[in-house]
Amino acid sequence: MAIDPIRKVTVTVCRKNSLRLLREINRLGVMEVVDLAPDNAGGLLDRCHASTDEADEKIHQVDFILNLLDGHAPERVGLIEGLAPMPIVTTNEELSRILSSYDLQKTFLWAKDLDETCRTSERVIQEMETEIESLSALADLEFTPAEVLDLKRTTVIFGRLPREALSLLADGQGVWGLCAWEELPPEATMPLHAGRDMARVVLVALKEEAAEIQAALRGAGFEEIPLPRLKTTARERIDELRDTVEMYKEKTGDALERIQDFTKGRREGEGRRPLKILRAYWQNVRDRSLALQKGLVGRWVHVVSGYVRLRDIPRLTALVEREFPESMLVLEDPGPGDDVPVSLHEKKPSRPLSLLVEMFGLPPYRSFDPTPFLMFNFYVFFGICFSDVFYGVMLTAVSAFLRARTKASSGVNRFVEILFFGGISSIVFGALMGSWFGDLYRPEYLGEGNLLLRTRDALMVIDPMAKTVLALLVVLAIGVVNQFYGITLRMYGQLRRGDWLGAFSDGVCWIGALCGVLVVVAGVFADVPHDIARIGVWLLAVSSVCLVLTQGRGVENPLKRIAVGIVSLYGIVGSYGLTSFAGDVLSHCRLLALGLTTSIVAMAFNLMAGMLRDIPYVGALLFVAVLAVGHVFNFAISVLGAFVHSMRLVYVEFFGRFYEAGGRPFRPLGFDTPWCVLRKDAEEA
User: Is the pTM of this model over 0.85?
Assistant: First the structure.
């Protein structure tokens, strides 16, 4: 339930055993290897050189094949797996079998050939369809374009002319009298150009007069259609192109069918699974080579350094003593300037919430883990936002079903466990606030004196629909407690670092000032006993003076220090502020808003279903159908809102009071990746 203690470890082995040492460290999966600078050895050792070329080539081949499969035969996954992909779980036996029998080079060449076929076919089809489109305006011409283009004294001009301009050709005045023309039948799919009605025409003119006529035509809005140099008619060329397109489409279809068959894994060695396992293996080989490069070598020795968790030291020590008896292993505490990685070690109740901490950012190594302190507020927030007994039961049941099926992925499993405990909290707060599928307990739905109504009345403490103001005061009180909770944790963190002045000025003084503010504000809206009111005023005054004197303690100039202290009361600078307190407390109103929204939407679906129940013959069926669809929909959108807003209240209104991320995760050298996990033997686990 804290940050794992980390030790710095340095292992020195014979140079001939360097590769085997890295393999054993990789197999054990407990040590993060760090880079050793040559000057750390006083110039006696050099940086180790190791090539990643083979691994890079294999990774490129696997990625090429997988990209081909994903591009032409996307993997079908369920909703949950689509939101949170699960890694493949493999074993040493399966890995050894794939490495010994899978011909990656052959599969890569097969994929490369299919990719080239698909790309070539796509390019050729696109080019031919473009040519077909350009020839469509000439498809009904009986002559071959080459015959017209080869005329010696005349030029044939073919194109589209706005229909209102045909009168110019008909009059034959001026330049228009220098050519012969004829209107052709309209195309089957004559396009409209900017809303203008176009006529298809062909004109013939002497070559020396063609340029003058073409200029006049352009001025009249003429769109010339270039004649291709074809020795066949346009229709014959179009038919030829379409036959070729069909041939290439058949090639593409055949290639896609082969890809589809491969993805289904109908034969030995096919499918995505062996490729993903190979991808993880070669990535691990590459990581080992990079880890080898981080070490230092001399003529006889190889030195590897890194970090290991305190609880894993016995396993690493036993490995080194057993496999490398001639080696030397040195353990030491990390120094003040070391970039120590962070590993959170949580017990079962708070373990899922470490996911939220990792999403926000890990704490620095010498700080404290905020995960166990989220047990109170996050689940309370979630339960209020999603406050419905039956929705909580649904969420708990779905999460329990998924927990056993997501153990291979730590992140997904922790998310599911958060929803599981959130469902339990929703059941509790749903019972306290009287929401059971909204108001499904009402007599008009289930009859007078039904069991659900009696249970609801027996367990309900406050009805937020009837006593909204009281419910609002409750959530505001929760917001106040959450703020004081965060300030207390800030004091805890400062006391851990030995910062007694910071704990007093940023903790005790602010708690005193805020308590005084609450008493003063309460006196405005209610009758507060005179003695309590006087204590509140004095508490506010004394705490404010202390804040003014201490909040600018980092400023050297005394006058500026006082000015910073005064401004800090407002909240512009300093560790906190009265406006921050007011805004953060009011932000907790979203708890009541989301809780009411969940209930109101559920009530709306109940009302809709109740209106259909009296329809003859099918009323009961429609009643159940609308309830099922409506409540499943409300369940889905409400659980998302409850999680997001609860997380926001933790990140902004709670973490903002005390928590500063900045740690980097502990990443031991090992096989496991986000897409593939190696199941360890019992003695290795």
Answer: no
